[in-house]
Amino acid sequence: MSFAELGLSEKVLTAVTAAGYSTPTPIQAQAIPHVLARKDVLGIAQTGTGKTAAFTLPMLTILETGRARARMPRTLILEPTRELAAQVEENFTRYGVNQKLSVALLIGGVSFGDQDAKITRGVDVLIATPGRLLDHVERGKLLLTGVELLVIDEADRMLDMGFIPDIERICKLVPFTRQTLFFTATMPPEITRISEQFLHNPVRVEVSRPATAAATITQRLIASNPQDFEKRETLRKLIKGATDLQNAIVFCNRKRDVATLHKSLLRHGFPAVALHGDMDQYARMAALESFRTGENPILVASDVAARGLDIPAVSHVFNFDVPTHAEDYVHRIGRTGRAGREGASFTIVTRHDDKLVAAIEKLTGQTIAFEGPGLDALPPGEAREERRGKRDDKRSSARGRGRGERDGKRRDHGEAEAAPAVEAVEERREARRQRSRHEAEPIRPGTPERKERGERRRNRDEDDGPQVKGLGDHVPAFLLRPVRIG
Ligand code: AMP
To answer: Atom 14, ligand 1: which residue's CA is nearest?
Structure first.
């Protein structure tokens, strides 16, 4: 099957050839003719399968006829994250070179002014994250009644991030007669429900998970003690010892750990950048760019920030934490070994992670081997580990200082040993900063509905893991002591 057989316009075909693509990927071959026939499409495909071009190419062909009206976009694409939205925009720029279409990006972290001006002039393609889109609608600057085609991309991610109520609202604002394209990597029951609600007689196109890609990925577990400084040391050794490392993504489960680990890697002289939900749009873009160009070949990221990013040719993935959702493991390691390339993934595992590893092995149907000694080789007993950790901190920082003072030189080895104590202080500082930021967050006035939406918004893009209620598992011992009354 060639692109020419799919029914795309000449202008689009020329752009595809210029982009260097000769054969459509399976999702493109299956979806494009149906999109061009103006059918609703339910596409089950992950990023990395070419699904973005599966909707951008036929959209460009469809948009060649007709023109945009002020404040009334002709097509709307919803993306869960700013990065994904920006990538879709890049696709329109690349494949739309031979056309004069107006494309606008509505994402958070960028001023409303420029976005307003563009919408007022009229846009053919509006690419948006749900929250920012609704903000524009509420400001009365945007009408969705002219939308002929709606794309809901990464629907399962939207569900994870709590965006479905917003998507339901947006769907009520676009005409019922629109064409809808709905993409998701997985089909949990809630996604089946909303796909039935949003789509009319859809054509279902499905491409298998890139399980074949996994065949080119060497997967290993690395045993570590659970303290963060021990895990950081394990990671540094892994990075230093990795063969053929060109670039790597290091995944953490929580965004605050992304920031801490990033700082630690920098302190140890690793060329690293961070990507997490608390960074503003420009910082995120700059970080990604420096990773893409190889200026900083190590990217420390959280799942939410990294999901769906189009980063070709990553040689290594390091899981600093075992992901809490087994599916995230598949997404993470799918960053390497793309398009038949060799890749390697290393997951740092502590004795608390056995259930999570079991869930991953069940999902992937593969047993992942330990590189080096397994968890049994680590000294048993949490309390002992913690005491030892503290002792080591004191000793090593004293040693590091002593040497530094004696020979007045910066020593790599001494630095590395002294680092845990410094990092512990840094971690406490970071936690204090996080706390004071949350406490300082102003509560904006507004209608009850607005307030409720505000609450949800604050939770968006959060990747701090499940919320701990009360004291969680960490109830101080004195509270558990029996109390004598009278
Ligand atoms: P996506 O799944 O949309 O994130 O695309 C994954 C990668 O595949 C991107 O780098 C695209 O540029 C690339 N790509 C898309 N379509 C094709 C194609 N037909 N042939 C080769 N590469 C493609």
So the answer is: 50
CA atoms of 9 and 90, how far apart (whole Å): 19
Q: How confident is the model at residue 39 (pLDDT cuts 50, 70, 90)?
A: very high
pLDDT band for 195, please (50, 70, 90 cuts): very high
- Mean pLDDT of the chain, nearest integer: 80
Give the position, in ligand 1's atom list, of the atom nearest the Cα of 46.
2
Domain boundaries, the chain: 3-206, 217-380
Element (H, E) at 426: helix 412-440
Q: Do the domains at 3-206 and 217-380 have one common CATH topology? A: yes
Q: Which CATH number is correct for 217-380, 3.40.50.920, 3.40.50.300, 3.40.830.10, 3.40.50.11590?
A: 3.40.50.300
Sequence-ordered strand ranges (E) for 13-58: 41-44
Q: What is the separation of C-alpha 223 from the centre of its chain, rounded to a whole number of angstroms?
A: 25
24 in contact with ligand 1, CB cutoff 6 A: yes
Which pLDDT score is estimated for 145? Answer: 96
C-alpha of residue 169 to centroid of ligand 1, in Å:
31
> Is ligand 1 within 6 A of the CB of residue 50?
yes
- In this prediction, residue 156 carries a pLDDT of 87
On whether the CB atoms of residues 96 and 269 are closer than 8 A, the answer is no
Distance CA 51, CA 184 (A): 10
- CATH 3.40.50.300 at 3-206, yes or no: yes
| Residue with CA at minimum distance from ligand 1 atom 8 | 50
- Tell me the pLDDT band of 20, cut-offs 50, 70 and 90: confident
Ligand 1, closest atom to CA 28? Answer: 19
Cβ of 227 below 6 Å from ligand 1:
no
In angstroms and rounded to an integer, the radius of gyration of the C-alpha atoms of the chain is 25
Question: Which residue's CA lies nearest to atom 22 of ligand 1?
Answer: 21
